[in-house]
Amino acid sequence: MFQHQLSSEGLRLGTITTAHGVIETPVFMPVGTQGSVKTMSPAEMKELQAEVILGNTYHLNLRPGMEIIRAMGGLHRFMGWDGPILTDSGGFQVFSLTKLRKVHEHGVEFQSHINGAACFLGPKEVMQIQATLASDIWMVLDECPPWPCSEEGVRMAVDRSVRWAGECKEHKREIPGESKHQLFAIVQGGSHDHLRRECAERLVELGFDGYAIGGVSVGEPEGEMLKAVEMVVPHLPADKARYAMGLGTPRQLVEMVARGVDMFDCVLPTRVARNGVAYTRTGYLHVSAGRYKQDPLPMEEGCTCYACRHFSRAYIRHLLNTKEILGLRLVSWHNLHFYLELMRRVRSAIREGWFQEFRREFVANYKEPNDANDLTRKE
Q1: 88 a catalytic residue
Q2: Is 265 assigned a catalytic role?
Q3: Could you give the angle at which helices 355-365 and 325-352 cross, rounded to 10 degrees?
Q4: Cα dihedral sign for 271, 62, 126, 147?
Q5: Cys-Cys with 84: which of 52, 78, 257, 270 at CB 3.0–4.6 Å?
């Protein structure tokens, strides 16, 4: 169940109540695709005060498989996490595994990226898998069109996604105890305003516990991504949670909150950590660069995370350059702390009525990379 209130600036603060706890929004959700946030233990995620993490239906269905998850008593018990879990439906893999899948009217036929084995995911299958996982928030199966894509192609994806969403809802009703689990729909429509609006309106008419904005951050310029979100938000009910899938950079999160979005997930904090990149309030820091080999400062001065309280840039650079796993862990720890703390600061600014000032200051001070390669090249 989602409850929200508007601040004096007209911004949203909310809570999502689940069987495994209450989630405060706006919220960043760390990604644990295969039942693990990379390099981090559940106890460490608790220490970071993560409120909810993600798992992925497609990947967990392949490995370890539902027979094992079922025998272990569900995903929470299997991975040792007692907080809320949101599971994606595998719809993004419809976009990302184009060479290994065929889209049919009733679902998607995949070749496993692991061993080539056949795998079929339709609305019934993704509901049954998520029931076995026993996650708190389930996502419907959708088709995420690439960018760019013809209007005809996007139209087909919208029609298919709406039909699959309705079928997911029907199949969920057949599952014993399903009312404990929330079901979110996913709005598609590419860069076409009328298709985004139509998709949102059709999904709202069907009725879901929350609504995600899909098909963003799939290669389009940032302006197009922001525009897609702006197209959708006015057509979503105010009393339901709004989730921008796969977003984004720290600045993008702040901008999305300003546009009325409640929930975010992104692999960036741990992905860039594996390239020795740490987030700071002024941008990103290549900790593995030579300039830091004798630097006694923490990754970010004033940061209260475990890594910054105890270790220098010089030590972390040493770990990264000698390929010690602790280096990846410490940068990942810092980056996850950065994202989660950013959302806590956002919520505080909204609550206290100075979010717009916070937004202006953060955007002015935070330097985004010129391109994705900036996050993988050493300074």
Answers
A1: yes
A2: yes
A3: 140
A4: positive
A5: 52
Give the distance between the most distant pair of CA atoms in the chain: 62
Active-site hit among 136, 142, 262, 265: 265
**What local confidence, expressed as pLDDT, does residue 324 receive?**
98
The b-or-e profile of 338-349 (16+ CB within 10 A means b, else e) is bbbbbbeebbeb
The amino acid sitting at 210 is: G
CA distance 173 to 170: 5
Among 243, 267, 238, 240, smallest CA distance to 257 is for: 243
Tokens read off for 64: 């370890």
Residues 6+ apart with CB under 8 A from 227: 191
Per-residue pLDDT at 369 exceeds 80: no
The span from the CA of 339 to the CA of 366, in Å, is 13
279 by DSSP, 3-state: which?
Answer: strand
* pLDDT above 80 for 375: no
DSSP class of residue 31 equals B
Q: Categorize the per-residue pLDDT at 379 as very low, low, confident or very high, splitting at 50, 70 and 90.
A: very low
Instruction: For each of the domains in the chain, give its residue range(s) and CATH number, in order of start.
Output: 2-266 (3.20.20.105), 283-375 (no CATH)
Mean pLDDT, range 280-306, rounded to an integer: 97
Residues 6 or more apart in contact with residue 323 via CB below 8 angstroms: none
350: nearest Cα among 29, 25, 30: 25
- How confident is the model over 195-243, as pLDDT tens digits? 999 999 999 999 999 999 999 988 899 999 999 999 999 999 999 999 9
Q: How far is CA 371 from the centre of its chain?
A: 21
State if pTM tops 0.85.
yes
Q: What is the dihedral of CA 323, 328, 330, 334, to 10 degrees?
A: 150
Whether 286 shows a pLDDT value over 70: the answer reads yes
Model pLDDT, residue 376: 52
- For the record, the structure tokens of 360 come out as 């202006």
**DSSP character string of 72-119:** TTSHHHHHT--S-EEEE-SHHHHHHTGGGEEEETTEEEEE-TTT--EE
Mean pLDDT of the chain: 94
* The amino acid at 330: L
Active-site annotation holder among 82, 88, 209, 295: 88
Q: How long a stretch of residues is the chain?
A: 379
